[in-house]
């Protein structure tokens, strides 16, 4: 599946910051000592395990920022599944720039591809249902837009991007307000008609209270599959239903089969294993 890429204007400051962190105060001492200034080289960026690619543009930008003469030829696209030993991109140009930008390029590409791969694993587990995988705000500080893009590459959908683009009333909000009803009343008094509202409930009793004045979506938190199915029947299509709480490839199918619209998982962004990719010299 092809995905609309994130604009370079959004990606470049993030990548530039990562390069500045790596270069420090003196630049790449190793490469500048070992590699002649006029040396050129060709490399193949290769997948070393099965997964889903995301973040090719971050790798391209990392290399271009070290030397604009570096050529980056992608051989796959973001969202594409790859197998071990499969070439992902060809890279050619000034050797110093390639070696200096290599780690930052691989850090971004490996992490984002890991997020896409984790998302795909969940999506595959519930592919026999209509339920979609959704991410959360549990993202790496500074990388939210990139990680949420990677979720889309893996076949998932995005939850809100920040505190300002939707309302999500959680358990602590309800505790402070005193009840689900009072929390919803306060929200309706504060936000405009175009702002989507979701409320988290952790019991069928709270759900019944919410259904007296339904909002746009309900988050069914830490409910088992049987309770989730009962909750979906109670909602009866009045709200979008989302299930969360230790959602894995093992637990997601039962929740999806209970009929929820979404299953959400924080680990696909904050704890996804990096996809192993490497920069290989054709000469060995």
TrEMBL record:
Swiss-Prot/TrEMBL keywords: Glycosyltransferase, Pyridine nucleotide biosynthesis, Transferase
Enzyme class label: transferase
Domain of life: Bacteria
Pathway: Cofactor biosynthesis; NAD(+) biosynthesis; nicotinate D-ribonucleotide from quinolinate: step 1/1
Enzyme Commission number(s) of this protein: 2.4.2.19
Catalysed reactions, semicolon-separated: nicotinate beta-D-ribonucleotide + CO2 + diphosphate = quinolinate + 5-phospho-alpha-D-ribose 1-diphosphate + 2 H(+)
SUPFAM superfamilies referenced in this protein's UniProt entry, alphabetically: Nicotinate/Quinolinate PRTase C-terminal domain-like, Nicotinate/Quinolinate PRTase N-terminal domain-like
GO cellular component labels: cytoplasm
InterPro entries listed in its UniProt record: Aldolase_TIM (IPR013785), NadC (IPR004393), NadC/ModD (IPR027277), Nicotinate_pribotase-like_C (IPR036068), Quinolinate_PRibosylTase_N_sf (IPR037128), Quinolinate_PRibosylTrfase_C (IPR002638), Quinolinate_PRibosylTrfase_N (IPR022412)
Subunit structure, as described in the record: Hexamer formed by 3 homodimers.
Role: Involved in the catabolism of quinolinic acid (QA).
Similarity field: Belongs to the NadC/ModD family.
Name by which UniProt lists this protein: Nicotinate-nucleotide pyrophosphorylase [carboxylating]
The organism of origin for this protein: Ornithinicoccus hortensis
